[in-house]
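Anyone up for a design puzzle?
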């Protein structure tokens, strides 16, 4: 990886430049020795690409990738630059990594988390939108679900058809203990993330497993509604119930979501979660963060090059939005022309309600407000691909175009929900580490009285784990009150410390 004695000093200079965002220093070092782009630190094996992605320095990320950095390189924890960008919500960096065909289906070594888990646990809905871009075709939303809706007469056929889709497999891919991205978004009360995941066929009935390295007081067999009840967000519970979640689901401890809400002091949820409740659940529209044209513009950007056409001598071909680059794409329908960069930015950032512009998931045209479903490349556009470093990692669409009769070992294994015995061992990590260390959960306060009685597990491993102190902010009535003291967080996740991840993150955050 370039850690020889001759280049370690220059490599550390490049790491410092990537961490600090010093583009001039990074460019000078890479001009002298392009192999420094593959350098990795001795401690956490973080590459300069990891540092630049975690800090959000998009220009340095592009510079490293153009000089041969491996877009799918892993650190000591098995985390890629894509995971770091999703952890901290740097969607522009994520956009650049996608243009260089990063593998979004990879999971880390510790707990099997994908980039989708990192984005959901911190509530970065734009990152979720970009991560699933290669799985959502640029077709009308109704046509995308027509095959599933055609088999609604037989529930078993509809469920089987949904499980076979690549999008459903990716969105519902479980991490350690069967925790999905929907579980994490529900636990932390990120309504926008929950709404988008549900529109992307997230399984509202997915339950956690009986085994794994995580320990929590909710227990195995818990659904996203159990996690939402623990988090205490009323709106999140409402949308889960509106999308088919059951109030009568018992986990392995025999607890209903109502029992979990009572144990964690979420008393404002009791009228909603009571089995005999007659509370009216509001209807929720589709997510404003659906972006149907994103796949089409990503493919055009990969073919033409993201930086192509920075100048144009023909005034008629200049993009009317930025007035800098030439137009290489046109919106289907209204035929208005844009440059690749403006079209990609529009598809990545727009969150205007779909019913105002056209079909669900369409993006409003900046000129006529017509709903854009896909972009097409204009005739005469240059065919210039980004320089992609040679690596063993496969591109994201490998799941979309694989032969169903011949399963590739690089693709994700078959996942059948709610069946512990059918889950491949590749999805679970044998290392006993604390998953999702950045999750902030409002838990019970021990100062107000004794904690609720729970089963004591692994009494010999009761090491102290510092709880996360919740900040006291004014919350709306919809979200409910948020507790300030969280002195029982050491009881929720595994008590064993994760020195691996702490070492990698300490390098990046130094």
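Challenge accepted. My sequence:
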């Amino acid at each position: 990886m370039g850690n020889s004695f001759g280049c370690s000093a220059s490599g550390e200079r490049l790491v410092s430049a990537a961490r600090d965002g010093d583009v001039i220093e990074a460019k000078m070092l890479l001009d002298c020795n392009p192999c420094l782009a593959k350098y990795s630190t001795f401690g956490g094996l973080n590459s300069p690409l990891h540092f630049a992605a975690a800090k959000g320095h998009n220009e340095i990320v592009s510079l490293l990738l153009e000089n041969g950095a491996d877009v799918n390189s892993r650190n000591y924890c098995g985390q890629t630059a894509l995971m770091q960008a999703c952890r901290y919500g740097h969607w522009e960096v994520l956009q650049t990594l996608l243009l260089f065909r990063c593998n979004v289906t990879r999971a880390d070594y510790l707990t099997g988390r994908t980039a989708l888990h990192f984005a959901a646990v911190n509530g970065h809905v734009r990152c979720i939108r970009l991560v699933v871009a290669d799985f959502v075709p640029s077709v009308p939303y109704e046509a995308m679900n027509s095959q599933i809706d055609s088999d609604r007469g037989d529930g078993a056929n509809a469920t089987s058809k949904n499980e076979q889709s690549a999008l459903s497999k990716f969105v519902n891919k479980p991490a350690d203990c069967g925790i999905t991205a929907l579980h994490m978004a529900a636990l932390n009360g990120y309504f926008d993330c929950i709404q988008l995941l549900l529109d992307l066929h997230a399984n509202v009935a997915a339950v956690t497993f009986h085994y794994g390295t995580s320990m929590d007081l909710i227990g195995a067999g818990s659904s996203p509604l159990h996690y939402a009840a623990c988090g205490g967000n009323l709106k999140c519970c409402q949308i889960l119930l509106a999308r088919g979640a059951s109030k009568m689901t018992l986990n392995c401890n025999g607890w209903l979501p109502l029992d979990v809400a009572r144990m964690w002091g979420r008393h404002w949820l009791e009228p909603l979660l009571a089995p005999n409740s007659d509370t009216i659940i509001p209807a929720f529209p589709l997510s404003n963060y659906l972006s149907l044209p994103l796949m089409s513009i990503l493919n055009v950007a990969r073919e033409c090059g993201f930086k192509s056409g920075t100048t144009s001598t023909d005034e008629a071909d200049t993009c009317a939005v930025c007035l800098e680059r030439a137009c290489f794409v046109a919106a289907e329908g209204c035929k208005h022309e844009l440059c690749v960069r403006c079209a990609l930015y529009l598809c990545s950032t727009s969150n205007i309600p779909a019913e105002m512009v056209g079909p669900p998931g369409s993006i409003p045209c900046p000129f006529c407000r017509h709903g854009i479903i896909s972009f097409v490349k204009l005739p005469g556009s240059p065919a210039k691909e980004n320089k992609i470093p040679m690596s063993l990692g496969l591109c994201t669409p490998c799941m979309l175009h694989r032969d169903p009769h011949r399963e590739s070992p690089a693709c994700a294994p078959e996942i059948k929900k709610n069946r512990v015995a059918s889950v491949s061992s590749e999805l679970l990590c044998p290392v006993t580490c604390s998953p999702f260390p950045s999750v902030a959960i409002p838990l019970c306060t021990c100062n107000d009285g004794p904690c609720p009685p729970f089963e004591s597990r692994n009494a010999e491993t009761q090491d102290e784990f510092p709880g996360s102190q919740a900040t006291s902010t004014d919350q709306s009535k919809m979200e409910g009150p948020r507790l300030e003291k969280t002195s029982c967080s050491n009881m929720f996740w595994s008590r064993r410390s994760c020195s691996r991840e702490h070492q990698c993150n300490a390098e990046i955050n130094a």
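A detail worth pointing out: The chain has three domains: 1-80, 104-289+396-441+491-510, 308-377.
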